[in-house]
Amino acid sequence: MDVVIVAFDDFTDVDVFFMWDLLKRVRAPGWSVRILGDKPHHTSSTGLPVPTHGPLTAANDAGVVLFTSGLGTRAKCQDADWLAHFRLDPSRQLVGSMCSGALILAALGLLDGKQATTYPSAKRRLEGFGVEVVERPFVAEGNVATAAGCLAVQYLVGWVIERTVGEEARAEVLRSVQPVGEGLSFEEAEQVQQVYAGGGRADPGALPERGQPSFVGP
């Protein structure tokens, strides 16, 4: 399974790094995680440069496409040349966004007729695309999902992992980042170490048959 995170300048640091970290904890045959962009490096809103692993057009052949958030979304959702790189198809791909990344999904027409969530400061802009915005941390309709609030990344990534690898893998990965004594225990040291060391690179696999995920968030 080829999973890609789409980045751009002025992205929100935690929404890229937390997604990347969680996704790289998955241990599954053919599992690959990459960051895509239109430059060799993109710089976060705090000034941290991050290398990219491929062009934006690689998203069109990925099994999972996730858009990050940040102030950069305001420009990208109005940049016709940038948007033209994408030919995404939710009938064969899982597509999701963090916080204001929903603006890009809307600009691509992927939220037409759907409910979605976003960061509070992006709510009015998203409504301007005709999207029904709901005050929830995670919303999934079919193969398209939106999450809002940085800690909601666990719901978006959890949805991806469950849909592609399974419920057990989702629980294993998310448990590994819980606070000690509040979901994570010393007795799980060996198991957690195996999860944290996971995340290989291989050829992308096929998206499983569509179905209703048992994980729907809070």
Describe this structure in words.
By secondary structure, this protein is of the alpha/beta class. It has one domain: Class I glutamine amidotransferase (GATase) domain (Rossmann fold). 28% of the residues lie in helices and 17% in strands. It is built from eight helices and ten strands. The strands form three sheets. The protein has a six-stranded mixed beta sheet with strand order 2-1-5-6-10-9. α1 runs parallel beside α6 and α6 packs antiparallel against α7. It is globular. The two termini are 26 Å apart.
Largest sheet data:
6 strands, mixed
- Placed side by side, the strands forming the largest sheet appear as 2-1-5-6-10-9
What is the architecture at the second tier of CATH? 3-Layer(aba) Sandwich
Query: What separation lies between the terminal Cα atoms?
Result: 26 Å
Q: Helix and strand string, N-terminal first?
A: EHEEEEHHEHEHEEEHHH
CATH topology, which one? Rossmann fold
User: Mean pLDDT across all residues, rounded?
Assistant: 89
Report the sheet-strand fraction. 15-25%
- Helix share of residues? 25-40%
